[in-house]
Amino acid sequence: MRTETASAADQAAAPRPADWEQARSRVYAVGLAAAPPAVERPLAEADGHTLAEPLTTRTDLPAFPTSSVDGWALRGAGPWRVVGRVLAGTTPAPLTEDGTTVEIATGAMVPEGTSAVLRVEDSTRTPDGLVDGVPRTAPEWRRPGEEASAGEELLPAGTPVDPAVIGLAASCGYDTLRVRRQPRAALLVFGDELLTAGPPAAGRVRDALGPAVPAWLRRYGCQVRPADVVGPVADTLAAHVAALRTALADADLVCTTGGTMHGPVDHLHPSLAALGADYVVNTVAVRPGFPMLLARLVDADGRVRFVAGLPGNPQSAVVALVSLVAPLLAGLAGRPMPVLPHATLAEPVPGRGDYTHLALVRLDRVAGTAYPVRHVGSAMLRGLSGADGFAVIRPDTNGAAGDRVPVVPLPLLPGERAW
In what residue span(s) does the MoaB/Mog domain sit (predicted)? Predict the structure, then answer.
């Protein structure tokens, strides 16, 4: 697989579409190479970031024997004489005499010398104040290291940090986590024909990507502020260059919509050439959405930024997001390359010749089947709104009912799991 880039000026005129799978791998590799340095973040500020190093236990988990019930810590045979009480957060004295017990609370440290823990609901008191009862067969306390041993790796580097990870880190005794920060993204909307409010009319269409793309990017783990969404940008080369230069000053990734072809008002390629960008990918052999691109700019100080050119048709733009932007962002965050799940086609899906076909599908996750949806033209959003992802029909093939095919899931909210 080729990983080198070519200048925008060299490749803009007659690009050869990249194989879809190779394009995904290529953009992931350049994203991973450009991943920002790890930073230390307090647990309260780590949500949405990515572990930059494995999460290991600092002690055994639990660190000491812990009662899992309210009851009595016993030594020897009963009935037992009560010699004290143990509450959570204290270090108890050992039980040194057979026939003795201490009252114990859930979560309290089990005293040394304990032979069993008797649940309070299984106990009785004799007239002379002794505790009597029959402990259950299963131990009623958690032993040190039952969940994990000291130094054991619990989660690998590259794991997204969510509330469950934060809670686990806290239980291990961490106050901060070493993480890779969320990439920052911006969006430039190109096209004088676009309306930003009201219904389409008089030859002008409503911009659907300006409101939608930032939400997709956030689901991929990006930071996108309202001020980072600009447009429609005037259909002039000067306006495009100025908008890109301003957005690139702060963003790690700038997405653009429209202008990826070579029409009379398509100024993205000349703008990239003017800025000295190199192409990572310039068009992809995928339908819909083939005129997508990813370009890279490197400052004199070595800082790397990216421009993702999304086609102007809404569904094609989303195809570009799942094809190029998702693996790029995984690399920038230091996460593993997304592995595609598989599903069984419930109905035939045609191929697109020597291009990969990404076909919108609805998933039955219980049965593991994928159903093609209707209204899937590249300019349509109706089918997309009811879909869970794209079935991948490889070049020079057709998808028959019963075939197992890869599926590119649409991004969910952080922490949600699709499969």
Answer: 186-331
